[in-house]
Amino acid sequence: MSVIRQDDFIQSVADSLQYISYYHPPDFINALNEAYRKEQSPAARDAMAQILINSRMCAEGRRPICQDTGIVTVFLKIGMDVRWEAELSVTDMVNEGVRRAYRHPDNVLRASVLKDSAGLRINTGDNTPAVVHMETVLGDKVEVNVAAKGGGSEAKAKFAMLNPSDSIVDWVLNTVPAMGAGWCPPGILGLGIGGTAEKAMLLAKQACMETIDIQELIARGSASRLEELRLELYEKVNALGIGAQGLGGLTTVLDIKIRDYPTHAANKPVAMIPNCAATRHAHFVLDGSGPAELKPPRLEDWPLITREAGAGSRRVHLDTLTLSEVAAWKPGETLLLSGTLLTGRDAAHKRMVELFEQGQPLPEGVDFTNKFIYYVGPVDPVRDEVVGPAGPTTATRMDKFTDAMLAHTGLLGMIGKAERGPSAIAAIKAHRAVYLIAVGGAAYLVSKAIRQSRVVAFEDLGMEAIHEFVVEDMPVTVAVDSRGESIHQSAPKIWQQRIGKIPVLEK
User: Fold this and answer.
1) Radius of gyration of the chain (CA)
2) What sign for the dihedral angle of Cα 355, 357, 360, 365?
3) What are phi and psi of 397, to 5 degrees?
4) H-type helices in 253-336, by residue range?
5) Considering only CA atoms, which of 366, 373, 320, 340 is closest in space to residue 450?
6) Residue 342 near residue 395, CB atoms below 8 Å
7) What string of H, E and C letters represents the secondary structure of 274-285?
8) Closest CA to 68 of 443, 396, 338, 358
9) All structural domains of the chain
10) What is the DSSP string of 445-500?
11) What confidence category does residue 507 fall into, taking pLDDT thresholds of 50, 70 and 90?
12) Is the dihedral of CA 233, 235, 236, 242 positive or negative?
């Protein structure tokens, strides 16, 4: 019988969450580097380069890979012969581990979890509670799988109750393009097949935490129907041409992972959950001998990739920018931004639009005239940082506010990640504005372009407050130009046709 002590368990959870905040799994880095080497799309290749550079920087600096440090999910297999030496419940111990990790003074992590989900949506302040799944198994050990799942990729989770005769491949190929790029490809698609609705979702989430090994499977060939399905989906999803960050290219997924379970004869439950470019998970086992020891990867395991600032890029001075200059930008063009911009996410947009509707002015110090708004909720700074990791959030969440913001503020444009929907594109075209994207999954790299930062409004919103950033050579790509042309609509079609393995699908 093993005795698992409370402090050992709590510290192991806390240490693992710190660990995964700045260390990518080595299998992810190897797979992404291989995809980077093969990529032929310049825009997608540059996005991958930024993700790889960011990953190495985070490993060296021990700071978060992404500003969205996730909602914590923990899968526990607790041996029936385990005895706990604890005063807290298992769930409470997990939450204390989360609390310690997210409040760690040397690497503070962003608290993104809100209580009263259907009402006031108030930040809990320490990223608790976690989502905990427990299973009692034979043995005298506790097996722990910990993940920190970002909101952008989690928002793209899909479920369908197919008919038994329906094709899973067809469902996936129809669903992935509709997911857009808000899940920050390239990453992993986890599929859960069978069981009941909730079981399929759990299987998909667990599949996301498995090791990337598709190239080994390709080399040896399939030995089961699930392996055949993995190979077929890997080839066909990549043939969609979506590419890194939705910019078009050869690699959309690094692997397809599938778990299945017996199901009712009348049903075929299928769940799909993507893991993004900030893939974060760790596995450890406690046997009573002390806390888990997580061995840091070697920095030599990261590829040495350099990206020349300014190579093929247009330098833009934000403080003197004019509408005519903005009108000259084309989709896919790379810009390096220097000057002042303001930030704002969902909560700030909601407040500002309410002020417009009431005929009230924006708070003092908030002037968007001839400026850009950056959709970001940064991590708090530590040590000598100006700001913590500050990558973009999914722009489609701001689509409902876009027309009002452009009509009332004098904005020249917006910066976020992934595509814009039809209403936002129509508003951008009508107001002759533009939409730019920064790379999701390169938050620490982006933060190094921010030279000054201060909160100018809505301080009570925490990470969703409006900040003023002064940036220097912040890398972005033109995603929607002033004529309403979107690279997220055009590029995947071009690359799907170039790859030529499946018919070009119209949106």
Assistant:
1) 23
2) positive
3) -65, -20
4) 323-327
5) 340
6) no
7) EECCCCCEEEEE
8) 443
9) 151-277 (no CATH), 314-491 (3.20.130.10)
10) HHHTTEEEEEEEE-GGGGGGSEEEEEEEEEEEEEEE-TT--BHHHHHHHHHHHHH-
11) very low
12) positive
Element (H, E) at 198: helix 197-207
How many H helices and E strands in the chain?
A: 15, 19
| Two tokens, residue 186 | 């390239």
Q: Look up residue 245 and give its amino acid.
A: Q
- In tens, the pLDDT along 309-353 reads 445 789 999 999 999 999 999 999 999 999 999 999 999 999 999
Closest CA to 499 of 244, 255, 240: 240
Burial class (CB in 10 A: 0-12, 13-18, 19+), 156: buried
CA dist 61 → 29, 47, 280, 299 (Å): 17, 21, 17, 11
Tokens 């590029």 found at: 491
Q: What is the pLDDT of residues 216-253, one digit of tens each?
A: 999 999 999 999 999 999 999 999 999 999 999 999 99
Which pLDDT tens digit goes with each residue over 244-294? Answer: 999 999 999 999 999 999 999 999 999 999 999 999 999 999 999 999 999
pLDDT tens readout for residues 127-182: 999 999 999 999 999 999 999 999 999 999 999 999 999 999 999 999 999 999 99
CB 215 within 8 A of CB 150: no
Tens-place pLDDT, residues 372-400 = 999 999 999 999 999 999 999 999 999 99
pLDDT higher than threshold 70 for residue 22? yes
Provide, rounded to the nearest whole percent, the portion of the chain with pLDDT above 70.
98
The length of the chain in residues reads: 507
Residue identified by tokens 């790509």 is 477
Q: Is the whole model's pTM more than 0.90, yes or no?
A: yes
Measured distance between the N- and C-terminal CA atoms of the chain, rounded to whole angstroms: 58
* Kind of pairing between the strands at 268-275 and 158-162: antiparallel
Q: How far apart are CA 389 and CA 391, in angstroms?
A: 6
- φ, ψ (nearest 5 deg) of residue 198: -70, -30
Q: Are 435 and 416 in contact (CB under 8 A)?
A: yes
d(CA 489, CA 435): 14
**Number of other residues whose CB lies within 10 A of the CB of residue 167:** 12
Give, in order, the Cα–Cα distances in Å from 72 to each of 99, 109, 126, 141, 251.
Answer: 11, 12, 11, 22, 28
Q: How many CB atoms lie under 10 A from the CB of residue 234? A: 20
Q: Which helix (H) or strand (E) holds 159?
A: strand 158-162
Q: Which residues contact 359 (CB under 8 A, 6 or more apart)?
A: none
Please name which of 346, 351, 370 lies closest in space to residue 361, comparing C-alpha atoms.
351
Tell me the two tokens of residue 486: 């979107």
d(CA 39, CA 59): 24
